C-alpha cells in the first residue's frame, strides 16, 4: 500500500506531539523536594497573541512560551505557563504578538555598505559595471566587519533571527554573528575570476573547503556552506567540484539559479540547456541546495525542484528592482517545492526588511495572476518562518514555537494606529506590520533586543564606521 503525503504528515504530526509531550513531562512540576528545581526556567515570554506557526496549532490568545537552556520547553496560555513554571526573567506581552523569528533565506549582508550605490540598472550591467569592480576595490576584512555589524543591527531591529549569507571573508562574518547573537548559514563564495582576497577559482574554492571543514561555531548557531556564485560565473568543472566536496562533507550549497533572462541566454548559448537542467546534470542537486531567486523555471523543472527537495528562496523586491521577473511561486508551492523568502543584498533591495518581502510576496502574485485568492496571508507568513526554515534545512531547529525547538522568537507591537483595529492577527502580520513594529528579538533564548533597544551591538559606533567607509566609496563613484 503506497504511503500518501497525508499519511506522512499525520505520522510526523503524531511523532512531534509524542516528543513534545515527553519533553514537557520533564519540565512540568514534580512532587516532593525537587518540585521547585524542576519547574524553574530561564525565560518566559508573553503575548496578547502567540502565533506558533505549527501546522496543527491555533493562535493562542493571552499565551506564553517558557525557555530553558535556549530551548522551548512549553507553549500555552498565560495561566498554564504560570502554574507550571517560574522564571528568572519575564517579558511582558500586553499589546504584543509573539511569533517565531523571521528567516531570511538569501542575502549578502555586508553589501549594506553599497546600499543605494547603483540603482535603476539591468542586472548584468549592474553586476559587471558597478558591483564587481567596486567589490574588488573596497571589500576587505574591515569592510566585512563593519558591513556585517550594520546588517545585523538592521536585522535584529526588524525581527530576522536566521539568515543565509553569501559573501566574502565568511570567517570574519562568522565572528560578527557569534558576537551579535544571530543564527546563520554562512556560504563561502567561489567564482571563476578574481574576487576580494582571491586570484580566481583555485584559491577561492580551497578557502571554501577549509572554511566548511574547519570552521567551528562555539554557539552552534553558524552552519558553514559552499557558495558558488552562479552557473554563468562558475564553469561546469568547478560546479562539479563543489557538488562532490559538498557530498563528502555533508555541507549545504547556496547558489543563484535561473535568476534572469540574460542568464538563460548565456547558459543556452554555452551548454544548450537551461540553468536548472545544467546544474542537475553536474550532480549539484543531489546535495542540500538553497537556490536563490529561481525566477524562470519551466513546468518540468518545478517538478525537478520538488523531487530533489531543493530550497527555493523567493526575493520579490530584488527581482522587481533588477527587472529579473516574477518567480512562479504559487505553482512551485502547489507542486510541493520548499519555498522561503529572502531580501537579497541591500544593494539590490535596498534594505533587509523581511516584512516588506512578506507583504510583496502576498501582493505581487495576486496582481500577476489576476487572482486575489493566491498566496493567502498564512501561506506567505509560513514562507518567512516555518517553511523558510525547512527550505534552508533548519526546519528541525527553528521556524515554529513548539516544544523542543530553539528559542528564536520575536514580539511585534500592536499599539500603533496602523495596527488598529485588529480582526485577524495573521492578516495584520502580513499586510500591516512594519519592521519598526518589532520590539523584542530573541535567539537561542538570549535577548538581543528588548523594548526596541538592541543589547548586543553599539548602533552609534556602527553607523560612524559605516559612514567613514561610505565616504571613500562615494569619492570613487564620483571619479567613474
Q: How would you portray this structure in words?
A:
Helix 5 runs parallel beside helix 6 (170-180), helix 5 crosses helix 18 (459-478) and helix 15 (377-383) packs across helix 17 (425-431). The protein contains 18 helices and 17 strands. Strands 1, 2, 3, 4, 5, 14, 15, 16 and 17 form a nine-stranded mixed β-sheet that branches. The protein is an alpha/beta fold. The chain has helices spanning 5-27, 35-38, 78-84, 123-138, 141-158, 170-180, 201-214, 236-249, 261-271, 275-281, 299-307, 316-321, 329-334, 354-369, 377-383, 386-391, 425-431, 459-478, and strands at residues 40-50, 60-68, 71-77, 86-91, 96-100, 102-107, 160-166, 183-190, 222-228, 253-257, 289-293, 311-314, 338-341, 409-413, 438-443, 446-450, 453-454. Mean pLDDT is 92; it is low at 1-38. The chain starts with a helix and ends with a helix. It folds into two domains: 5-100 and 405-454, Urease, subunit C, domain 1 (Roll); 102-391, TIM Barrel (Alpha-Beta Barrel), CATH 3.20.20.140. Helices cover 42% and strands 21% of the residues. The radius of gyration is 22 Å and the shape is globular.
Task: Please write out the topology.
Layout: H1 5-27, H2 35-38, E1 40-50, E2 60-68, E3 71-77, H3 78-84, E4 86-91, E5 96-100, E6 102-107, H4 123-138, H5 141-158, E7 160-166, H6 170-180, E8 183-190, H7 201-214, E9 222-228, H8 236-249, E10 253-257, H9 261-271, H10 275-281, E11 289-293, H11 299-307, E12 311-314, H12 316-321, H13 329-334, E13 338-341, H14 354-369, H15 377-383, H16 386-391, E14 409-413, H17 425-431, E15 438-443, E16 446-450, E17 453-454, H18 459-478
Parallel strand pairs: 1-4, 1-5, 6-7, 7-8, 8-9, 10-11, 11-12, 12-13
Antiparallel strand pairs: 1-2, 2-3, 5-14, 14-15, 15-16, 16-17
Helix pairs in contact: 5-6, 5-18, 7-8, 14-15, 15-17
